[in-house]
Specification:
The protein has helices spanning about 5-15, 20-30, 35-40, 45-60, 75-105, 105-120, 135-145, 160-175, 195-200, 250-265; strands spanning about 30-35, 60-65, 70-75, 130, 150-155, 180-185, 205, 220-225, 230, 245-250. The protein is of the alpha+beta class. The protein starts with a helix and ends in a 15-residue tail after the last helix.
Length: about 280
């Protein structure tokens, strides 16, 4: 017996290929079996069945039994998941170690020098473009926050406040600890009070609301050091894959357009009730 297509698809999501999915589910139904028996049950070519079972054993989904003919024992699903989690965790730690080592190497110094040389040849207007998809946008915004030296100004939506807390909490906290002044403007409600309190640990946060003399912008943008910016081009209700943003290293647009707009809105905003955010760095 082989598992349902829905279950086979779920096994694909955790990294098993088509043959591995079929043979593992069949092996579960038998407990112990030979490669030939499993090949007949699943229509997996016998010549491939041995390689597939060896791969399943390496991933922690089966055990090879010392017998003639060679037999294979199924690992219970929950234990198999723990086995593959452990492997992924070890692989991730190794990769992170390699990346940390690369950051300390001479190679990264050379690459940084090349980057600086390239910047000298580029006009500010050329350092701009579009970002597509929430992941790419969040990644780029995170890079901006990491590079901040003096100030970060963020205007965002109610959903955006939550995204800041969930995706950039540590980066913004580190920026604040490095003396960067972090200001956040957004609509504060009873529902997001806990999010706002978390943001206040590293930012000055103010409530953004309509005024008699003007309506507030409905969107998101971030300005870093008055020379770099990212601005959302879509509303919060679009699918993550369809989110679009504009980014630029134009100090004109950052310092003379969006930053003054932020300052005006900040001046007309209100401090929320509860603990105030951190004081501005000296």
């Amino acid at each position: 017996m082989v598992a349902s297509q829905e279950t086979l698809d779920a096994l694909e999501d955790i990294g098993l290929n088509m043959y591995e999915r079929k043979i593992y589910s069949a092996l579960l139904g038998r407990g112990v079996s030979t490669a030939g028996e499993l090949s007949e049950m699943t229509n997996v070519p016998r010549s491939r069945a041995y390689d597939v079972l060896e791969s399943l054993a390496e991933k922690g989904f089966a055990v090879i039994k010392s017998s003639k003919p060679m037999e294979y024992v199924a690992i219970p699903p929950n234990q198999a998941i723990e086995n593959i989690k452990k492997q992924h965790r070890q692989e991730l730690e190794e990769k992170l170690g390699q990346l940390d080592g690369f950051k300390e190497s001479k190679a990264i110094e050379e690459l940084e020098e090349l980057y600086d040389q390239g910047l000298d040849l580029v006009e500010p207007a050329e350092m701009s473009g579009s970002l597509k998809g929430k992941h790419q946008i969040e990644q780029h915004v995170g890079t901006m926050f990491q590079e901040a030296q003096n100030s970060i100004k963020i205007l965002t939506s109610e959903e955006g406040l939550k995204d800041l807390r969930d995706n950039h909490y540590n980066l913004l906290k580190d920026a604040r600890e490095n003396g960067v002044n972090v200001k956040v403007l957004g609509p504060i409600t009873e529902e997001n009070a806990d999010v706002v309190n978390d943001l206040k640990e590293f930012a000055e946060v103010r409530h953004l609301q309509d005024k008699d003399e003007f309506d507030i912008p409905n969107g998101r943008f971030a300005v870093v050091d008055d020379d770099a910016l990212t601005m959302s081009m879509t509303h919060d209700k679009v699918h993550n894959t369809q989110e679009t943003a504009f980014w630029s290293k134009s100090d004109h647009m950052a310092q003379e357009t969006l930053s003054p707009m932020f300052d005006v809105l900040w001046h007309h905003s209100e401090e929320p009730e509860g603990p105030k955010g951190p004081k501005r760095p000296e």
